[in-house]
Structures are given as structure tokens and as C-alpha cells.
Amino acid sequence: xxxxxxxxxxxxxxxxxxxxxxxxxxxxxxxxxxxxxxETDKITVEVxxxxxxxxxSRAKGEGDVVAVNDTLGEIDESGAGAPATAPATAAAPxxxxxxxxxxxxxxxxxxxxxxxDEAGVNLATVAGTGRGGVVSKPDVIAAxxxxxxxxxxxxxxxxxxxxxxxxxxxxxxxxxxxxKMTTRRKRIAENLLLAQHATAHLxxxxxxxxxxxxxxxxxxxxxxxxxxxxxxxxxxxxAKAATLALKAFPSVNAQIDGDSIVYKHYVNLGIAVASEAxxxxxxxxxxxxxxxxxxxxxIAAVAKRARxxxxxxxxxTGGTFTITNGGVFGSLISTPIINYPQVxxxxxxxxxxxxxxxxxxxxxxxxxxxxxxxxxRIIDGQxxxxxxxxxxxxxxxxxxxxxx
Length: 404
Fold this sequence. Notes:
alpha+beta; CATH 2.40.50.100; Dihydrolipoamide Transferase; 3 domains; 4-stranded antiparallel sheet; 10 helices
């Protein structure tokens, strides 16, 4: 027997949650084949088989929390090369049917695509319940589940008593569900609380007239995509403006270490990405050395790895400053929470036509509120305000970003 152990999970990560077993007990396995997926607070880790054989046992179930070097199960090496339970000739057509050509236009999560391919489910026939109609893994599972036999009518749920007395336990349970928090969600919660409790958290606001940057993007986006293969969004412009503002105000890119301030003479720019597993913040390394196109390529690459659950520890460590964009979900204004141990975070919001006073006239302009949450222990209010003013000036006069 060969023990299947939880591998090292990365610096400072000591536990994970068993996300999904890809093999059942008794299944034949090849050396190097992925047996189980573990979810940490940062990344998804695939645990491969060290030797060929059969999966003798699964010591941990899906949802269990495990630590580094815990035993997940055992492989029976003597089962290597044993015949499969079904003849190979019979398995071939089943495998072919189990992998239909998926419609690339169907928006689906990576876990949902994998399960659909394995089970032979056509994603085009599955109703997506995720944000924006994205097909999730539970949607595929529901599509695979045969309809249940008709049941006798359930007893009606008792209405809330009119006299104000408490509901019975049975009544409450029909209106509530309970779900265990994943390791990643627990760690996100802990980090957000730590940021609030360990920093002198303060937020300042400004607004940007997006007219100039919208006109520039509209003018060059088609050419940029055709010649460079880059779909140009507004984020790379904000990223470039932020890196230039960080050069002007280095304390915003610093970090507290005990009673010392560590100034970072580089910018590893974190971009908050909403993935199926929760919020993650991969970094664009040395963003201050990149132009608009380079930043755009790197943001697209790390965002794709985040959505496909392919982020590495290098993607998620070493960040010095973060940008989060609630505007993509319609947020008009918010106070972002610092990505501790960083000392500041820039929040972007929805662009909305609003009346403003310009040269003594009231005009309608596309305006965006921006917010900087910062650690007041090392960033003074003046520096925070001037940082946002710098970002505003660069975005309202994008040609000035070429002068560096």
C-alpha cells in the first residue's frame, strides 16, 4: 500500500479542504494521474498518484479539512495492470459519448466544464444559475440527476403565528439551509477582519471625468486588437496611472515591518478578481516597468488563470498595491478594504452620466467615483488625497501618461 499524502501547500499555508475526488475506491489509476483536488485559501492543488495501481481507500471525504502530510487515502500498487471492470472494446464508445463537443459560447465555470466532459453532459442543455447565467458545477450535477419519483404531497408549512409567538424548530428548518464555509472563504474572512483590526483604516474619495480616456480607448481599441491581439479595457489605463502615482507618493506602496517602514521600489500590482471559488488577488509583477499593452496582456493572463483555477503561489504573493473594480458589478461608490499587509487599495466604480459644473456651465459628463483606502499609520491624509488627485489628472489627460 502507498499512502496518498497532502503535499506542501505553499508558504504559510498549513491546511486545505478536500474539494473533489476524481477517483472512486477500486478505480484503476495510472502514475501521475490526478486523484483528488484540494482547495486552499489561495489556490487549488491537484494531488497525483505517485505509482500506478488501484485506489484502495479514501481516508478523507469531500469537505474535510486536512493538514500538510495528512493521509488522504491509499493506493494498492499490486493492482497495477489489472484488467478494468469493463472490456476495453465496450469502454471506447462510452468514452466517446462522454465527451460531447461543448459549445464555446456557453459561459461555464472550469469545474462545471470538467464534470460535464467526464459525464457526457452537453452544457448547452444546462440552465446556468450563476452570476450572469454562468453554468456552475451544481447546475451540471442537477442536470445529471434523474427526476425523482412523485412523492406524496408534503404537509403545508405552518404560517408565522399571528399572535407573535415564536415559530417551531421544524418550521424554521424548512426556511433555512446551512453550509460549511470553505477554507478559502474562512481565510478571506480572517484576512478582512485582520485588515480592519491591524490598520488605522481610512478612505478618501475623488471623481474622474472619463470623457478623454473613453475617447482615446474608442479611437485605438480596434487597431490594438487587430495589431496586437489585446482587447483594451479601462483597467490598464488605471493601472498605469496608479504606478505613476505610486512613484510620486512612495509611502502608498510601502509596508510596515515592526517599527520600520519598508519602501518598495517596484510595483507588483494586485488586481482583485471574482472567481467561482471567491475573491482572489493575483499580481502583475513589475507593473511599473510595463506599458499599457504589457499591463493589459498580463492582467488578462492572470485573470484567466484565476477563472480557470490555475493560479500559482507566485501569482498570489509579493503584491505591493491593489486595485479593485466594483464598477463591473454596478457599484457606484464603496470603501474597499486594504489587502493586508499592503497599506493602500484603489477602488474603481461604475461610470455614470452626471451633471457637473464646467467653465461656468452645467454639462453632462461620464463620471466615475474613485476611492483610496489607506493605513493612516504611515500615509498622511494629504498624501492620500494628492495620490488620488494624481490618478485623476493622469486619467483626464491620458497623453500625460506617456511622459515618464
